C-alpha cells in the first residue's frame, strides 16, 4: 500500500469514529476553539453538516485509492488456494475411474498409487455440477515392485455444492486470514456505523 492510500484510509476511519462518538454521546456543540480563539456556534447542526460533507469526501477518496491499490497478486493468491483444493477433491474420483478401467497392474491401495502435480486445466458448469479437466502425473507400483509413471489428463465431475464450498472457503481464508480484509473492506464497515447510528438517533 502506498502512503496516500494509507492516509485516505486513516482519514475515513477517524472521521467515522468521531461521528459515531458524537451521535452516541448526543453531543451538542455550542462553541469551537480555533487557534486559541473561541467561537460560539449559533447553529450547532451546521457542524454535523460540515462533518458529513467531509465524510463523503473521505469515503470517495478512499474508494478511488482502494481500487488502484488492490494488490494484483490477490487473484493469483486466491487461485493458489482454490486449485489445490479442487485437485484434492478430484483425486479420489480420478483414481476410481482409472481403477475401474483396469489401469493398475496390481491390487489397488492408496500406498501403491500417487497423483503428482495435479492442476485444473479447464472447467465448465452444467446441470448443478462442475466438469473439471485435471492434468498431472500418475505413478503406480507394479507387481515387480517397479514404479511406473505416466502423464494423465482426465475429466471429473464435482458436485456444485462442493465446488462452491471450496471457492467460498478459499475466499474467506484469503479475506480474513490475510491483511486484505482489514485494509480494503473493514473501512467501509466502519464508515457505515455513523450512518446507522445517526439514522437511529434521528428516528428516536
Question: Would you summarize the structure shown here?
Answer:
By secondary structure, the protein is an alpha+beta fold. Helix 1 runs antiparallel to helix 2.
For the secondary structure, the number of strands is 5
Low-confidence stretches: 106-111
What is the molecular shape? rod-shaped
Strand order of the largest sheet: 3-4-5
Largest sheet: 3 strands, antiparallel
Evaluate the radius of gyration. Answer: 29 Å
Strand content: 15-25%
Mean pLDDT: 77
- From the helix content, strand content and strand pairing, which structural class follows? alpha+beta
User: Treating each run of at least 4 consecutive H or I residues as one helix, how many helices?
Assistant: 6
> Into how many domains do the coordinates divide?
2
End-to-end separation in angstroms reads 41 Å
Q: How do the helices and strands follow one another from N- to C-terminus?
A: HEEHHEEEHHH
- Quaternary state, please? single chain
Helix content: 55-70%
Tell me what you see in this structure:
It is a single chain. This protein has 204 residues and is an alpha+beta fold. It has two domains: 3-69; 74-168. The chain contains six helices and five strands. It has helices at residues 3-24, 45-69, 73-100, 160-176, 180-184, 186-203, and strands at 31-34, 37-40, 113-126, 129-141, 147-159. The strands form two sheets. The protein has a three-stranded antiparallel sheet. It has a two-stranded antiparallel sheet with strand order 1-2. A hairpin with a 2-residue loop joins strand 3 and strand 4 (129-141). Helix 3 (73-100) runs antiparallel to helix 4 (160-176). The radius of gyration is 29 Å and the shape is rod-shaped. Residues 106-111 have low confidence and may be disordered.
Amino acid at each position: 500500500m502506498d502512503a496516500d492510500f494509507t492516509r485516505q484510509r486513516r482519514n475515513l476511519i477517524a472521521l467515522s469514529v468521531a461521528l459515531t462518538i458524537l451521535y452516541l454521546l448526543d453531543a451538542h456543540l455550542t462553541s469551537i476553539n480555533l487557534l486559541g480563539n473561541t467561537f460560539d456556534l449559533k447553529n450547532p447542526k451546521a457542524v454535523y453538516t460540515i462533518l458529513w460533507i467531509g465524510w463523503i469526501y473521505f469515503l470517495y477518496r478512499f474508494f478511488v485509492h482502494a481500487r488502484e491499490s488492490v494488490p494484483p497478486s490477490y487473484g493469483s493468491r486466491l487461485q493458489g488456494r482454490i486449485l489445490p483444493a479442487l485437485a484434492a477433491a478430484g483425486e479420489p474420483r480420478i483414481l476410481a475411474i482409472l481403477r475401474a478401467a483396469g489401469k493398475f497392474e496390481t491390487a489397488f491401495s492408496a500406498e501403491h498409487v500417487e497423483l503428482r502435480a495435479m492442476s485444473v486445466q479447464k472447467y465448465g458448469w452444467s446441470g448443478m455440477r462442475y466438469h473439471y479437466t485435471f492434468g498431472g502425473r500418475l505413478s503406480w507400483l507394479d507387481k515387480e515392485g517397479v514404479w511406473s509413471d505416466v502423464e494423465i489428463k482426465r475429466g471429473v465431475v464435482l458436485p456444485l455444492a462442493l465446488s462452491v464450498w471450496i471457492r467460498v472457503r478459499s475466499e474467506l481464508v484469503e479475506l480474513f486470514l490475510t491483511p486484505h480484509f482489514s485494509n480494503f473492506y473493514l473501512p467501509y464497515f466502519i464508515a457505515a456505523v455513523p450512518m446507522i447510528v445517526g439514522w437511529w438517533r434521528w428516528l428516536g
